[in-house]
Amino acid sequence: MALLLPALGWAQYSISGTITDRSSRQPLSGASILSGNTLIKSNSNGDYKISRLKAGTYTLTFRFIGFSEISTTISLTNDRIFNAAMAPTNIITDEVIVKATRATANTATTYKNLDKQELEKYNHGQDLPFLLNQTPSVVVSSDAGTGIGYTGIRIRGSDATRVNVTLNGIPLNDAESQGSFFVNIPDFASSVDNIQIQRGVGTSTNGAGAFGGSLNIQTTTRRDSAYAEVNNTFGSFNTWKNTVNIGTGLINGKFTFDGRLSRIKSDGYIDRGASNLKSYFLSGAYYGKKDLLRANIFSGDEKTYQAWNGIPEEKLKGTPAELGAYYQNNKGQSFFTPADSSNLFHSDKRKYNSFLYKNQTDNYTQNHYQAFYTHTFNDQLSLNTALHYTHGSGYYEEYKNEQDLKDYGLANVILGSDTVKSTDLVRRRWLDNDFYGITYSLTYKPTTRFNFTLGGAYNEYDGDHFGEVTWATFNSNGQPGDRYYNGNGFKTDFNIYGKATYELGSLILYGDLQYRKIGYDITGTDKSRIELNIHDKLNFFNPKAGITYLLNNESNVYASIAVANKEPNRDDYVNIAAGLSPVSENMKDLEAGYRFTGNSIKAGLNGYWMIYKDQLVLTGQLNTEGEALRQNVADSYRLGAEADVQIALLPNLSWGVTANLSRNKIKDFTEYVYNYDTKINDSFNHTHTNIAFSPSFVGSSELSFRPFKKAEIGLLSKYVSKQYLDNTSNNTRKLDAFFVNDLRLGYNTSLGKVKNIGITLLANNIFSELYESNGYTYSFTYYGVQTTSNNYFPQATRNFMLSLSLKF
Questions:
Q1: CA-based, 20 to 30 A from 787: which of 522, 582, 597, 659?
Q2: Same domain, 360 and 348
Q3: Mean pLDDT of 691-715
Q4: Section 729-745 average pLDDT
Q5: Is there a contact between 302 and 362 (Cβ–Cβ < 8 Å)?
Q6: Which residues are in coiled coils (predicted)?
Q7: Domain annotation covers residue 329
Q8: How far apart are the C-alpha atoms of 80 and 61, rounded to whole Å?
Q9: What is the CATH number of the domain that holds 305?
């Protein structure tokens, strides 16, 4: 810290002023002012102030939706005032595409915005969830341990199936599983302009219900100048990322074209946890005085070696005797071959992967097509519409030992006097689906005090699920191309919402009403070859209301109440225990908070109470495929407080910190344990237990120091308290707390025609914390003894990524 002491003696100055509409001379509230890496917003009076600046030259850029950008260079030797009078633009900006589903500075919703510059600091090849790791209440995990390949995200303890994700307002969540699989669109962050993360129910949006939060993602927007960018990363575990971005800039004041091509490869931290990912993104737009037309085409292709079994606790943490007992207890069920046995006993305990078959891979290609049209009728009324189509197709391949022929529709094989009833085989399980629909929003703003949006969507999903045996020791009567199961899921999703804000002096009222109608049909056979004939229709009404009070130009307080409803997913319908049927989940979300934006500090403090009715939770039951089953529980809740603070400690030293302290409980829960002796489930009642994967504390810290203008040193820290693997609050079934630190070194300069040369060294987990961020558990009773099997997903120890980016 001694090196920082001279900074205290530097003279410090400020730049301040007012931002107005040049035509009406009205102040522009919420305008963006960018100076280097500092981004602030104007207050409700259009005022802004950047303080604690050293003497020198600064470039300020002023931006506001619907207005032409202003840039100015100021030589600072004393306090300066610069008033920006912005001219309404004669062409529409891209922000209108996502505006209907976004919260603003005065909306009674808890949210965080990330712009392109912030995302670029973290984007070195890892999946999008890992780029959000420093945001409030987020916990991320990775099957392969590196953040590449299959990754997961939880917000406030809610997994990806409860986090609504939209790309330019179009749903990304799979209609049946309701999860978002970013592995299917690798390096998508390189085509993202900004993200808004709403925690809790948030505002009305399209697609799956937001029970934990929502990610509202906007892709590439207009760039007026032609550009080319090359980004390359090399890192531990033979990780490579290569990305090329190009764009024409604005042609004839009306047209732009942008493109990206990416490749990511990694061997993974876990044995054979390799990923081979490819993607592209193409976009073209027409900008008129009253019309905007944009088309996006993007695709992802992934091949990942399966690492989704995790590592048994006996292998990861047990003694040799405990590992031996695990082997003896499981070899009869898992049919360990000699190679499997050697792998279990002799592989690295933190990198063990039970799969040895060379093509034990997941393979999937997803193609997206989006078309947007926006028309501005006048200063008060505008319409935004979008058409979309997504096609996904792929399979996972796996080798299986000693499978019963009848389970695959195959006849027994007669060899002389012997009857062969089982075989080793290789199978592929396919998913081939189409998702298409329309979204729209109509915005009416007759006065500066009143704003109304009418929006909604209609989407259809048509997905085929089928399986094939591609090789078998005894293929019996099977023929190439035969499907041993063949099912279909067809889903319709209609929603319409109206939302309005009205200003009464310092008081801002917010209302939001949504109606959603779902139809879901599941037919054919499932992977257990059981006939399916499931039909359900659901109607949801999701009201929301909030109030914001402006304390002064720098701060406000808000409170809101929102209702959300969510349908069961495909597995809930298909795998539900005999005699039961899943019902939809309901949540009431109460939020209250305080926001402050000052010269050297920006803070958001909020509390929440999420009250669930009929939440679907894991019960301990497994189906014949070993998949965990969920069941409705009557009452559960999440009660918590969050903080998100950024402080400028010195002109060249800043600190960002987030924290979440919560209590997450199920009031009454029944655990089921399968009893091999009686062939039925034993039940155990629990009260006031913790909801699985819901840590009571999640915190992050990012300390950023700029020793000189072009360099930055960042220390990123993350703490997550213990989490339970199931809903019993049993301390023998948990993930231990972990504290992980990453170090980021960055340097940016220019040379000749190269506008920016960026070099970044990212050292992840610099203290080699041994931790697991995800896992699962199941229990069973055999010969009167109850046994619990815990399995974990270890994350990589110390590893490095070195990136070089060139911008032209």
A1: 582
A2: no
A3: 94
A4: 96
A5: yes
A6: none
A7: yes
A8: 16
A9: 2.40.170.20
Question: Left (φ > 0), alpha (ψ -120 to 50) or beta: where does 145 sit?
Answer: left
Which residue, of 89, 112, 127, is where some domain finishes? 89
Torsion of CA 416, 421, 424, 427, to 10 degrees: 130
Eight-state DSSP code of residue 568: -
Both tokens of 466, joined, read 């089928």
Structure tokens given for 348: 């690295």
Residue 706: alpha-carbon gap to chain centroid: 30
Reply yes or no on whether the pLDDT at 3 is more than 60: no
Bridge partners (DSSP) of residue 733 are: none
Closest by CA to 540, choosing from 567, 503, 520, 574, is 567
Buried b (16+ CB within 10 A) or exposed e, 341-377: eebbeeeeebbbbbbeeeebbbbbebebebebbbbbe
CB-based contact 213:158 (threshold 8 Å): yes
Q: Which residues pair with 573 in a beta bridge?
A: none
Residue type, 3: L
User: What is the residue-averaged pLDDT of the chain?
Assistant: 91
Do 744 and 645 share a structural domain?
yes
Closest CA to 802 of 144, 128, 232, 132: 232
Assess whether 742 and 616 both reside in one domain. Answer: yes
Q: Where are the beta strands (DSSP E) in 505-554?
A: 507-525, 531-550
Lookup: tokens for 118: 């912030």
Strand, coil or helix: 290: coil
Q: How many CA atoms lie within 13 A of 614 on its CB side?
A: 12
Under 8 Å CB-to-CB from 799, ≥6 apart: which residues?
A: 146, 235, 236, 237, 269, 763, 764, 765
Give the domain range for residue 36. 1-89
The answer to whether residues 545 and 581 belong to one domain is yes
Are residues 709 and 652 in contact, defined by beta-carbon separation less than 8 angstroms? no
Number of domains making up the chain: 3
- CA–CA dist 325, 310 (Å, integer): 18
User: Nearest-CA neighbor of 807 among 757, 740, 760, 751?
Assistant: 757
% of the chain at pLDDT higher than 70: 97
Does residue 332 share a domain with residue 273?
no
| Residue that finishes a domain, picked among 36, 54, 89 | 89
**What is the bridge-based pairing of β-strands 213-219 and 163-167?**
parallel
| Interatomic CA distance for residues 18 and 795, integer angstroms | 49
Q: Are residues 348 and 377 in the same domain?
A: no
On the 0-12 / 13-18 / 19+ scale of CB atoms within 10 A, 575 is: buried
Residue positions counted in the chain: 808
Amino acid 5: pLDDT: 37
Q: In the prediction, which pLDDT does 722 show?
A: 97
Rounded distance, CA 588 to CA 680, Å? 36
Only one residue has tokens 């046994």, namely: 787
In a domain, 153, yes or no: no
Q: Would 150 be classed as within a structural domain?
A: no
Indicate if 361 and 337 belong to the same structural domain.
no
Per the structure block, which two tokens stand in for 246? 């190009």
CA-wise closest residue to 723 among 691, 700, 684: 691
Task: Tell me, yes or no, whether 207 lies in a domain.
Answer: no
How many angstroms separate the Cα of 794 from the Cα of each of 147, 251, 320, 349, 735? Answer: 12, 50, 19, 10, 10
Are 284 and 326 members of one domain? no
